[in-house]
C-alpha cells in the first residue's frame, strides 16, 4: 500500500519548490497502454536478437526490413493517449518546472507540456536519411523506403551506439543545476548517460523517487508504489 504520509510530504515539497525537474521513463506510459522495455511483458522480452543489435545503425542500414518491422510492431502506438501522470507533470512543469524524459512516445507533449526535453528523441520525428526530408507516420508505416529518393527512412530516436545530441546534454545539465527539487518516476534509472544526470543536480535539491522499485542512488526520499496512484493524489 502506498505511504500516504510520504505522499503528503512529497506534495508539500512540490508546493514549496521554486523549480522542479522530473526525470521519467517507460513506467509512466505503461498506464497509457504502451509496454515498457525489459519487464516480462516488455517489448524486449523474447526478441529474436538482442535489442542492442536490432535497434542499431548497422541494422537500420544493413537490414532495414528487420528494423522497420520491429519498430512498427513493438514501438509505435499512435492511438495512445496521455494519462493522469503525464497531465499532472505537464501542469507542474508549465507552472514552474521542466521534464527530461527517456520516453519517445510524445505523450508528454500531447498532454500539453511546454517544457519537455526528449532525451532519446521522438518516434514521430521521422525523416529520410538520404534527402533529410520529413516523413509522416502514415508514409513510414507503409514503407521504409522514401518514395522521393529511395533513401531509408528512420525515426528520430537515439539508437544503440549513437551519441545523445550535445545540445540535449547541455540543456539537461542546465536544468539539473537550476532545480531545487528532483522527481524521478517510472524508470529503473540504469541507462546511461540519462542516469548520470543526477550527478549534475543542485547540491541543495531534494530528490523524490516515485517508483515500483528502488534505484541505485543515495540521498533519496522514496515512495515505492504505483506512480498513477501517487500523481492522482496530488
TrEMBL record:
SUPFAM superfamilies: DHS-like NAD/FAD-binding domain. GO terms for molecular function: histone deacetylase activity, NAD-dependent; metal ion binding; NAD+ binding. InterPro entries: DHS-like_NAD/FAD-binding_dom, NAD-dep_sirtuin_deacylases, Sirtuin, Sirtuin_cat_small_dom_sf, Ssirtuin_cat_dom. The active site is at 120 (proton acceptor). Keywords: Metal-binding, NAD, Transferase, Zinc. Residues 1-234 form the Deacetylase sirtuin-type domain. Its EC number is 2.3.1.286. It comes from the Bacteria. Zn(2+) binds at residues 128, 131, 146, 149. This is protein acetyllysine N-acetyltransferase.
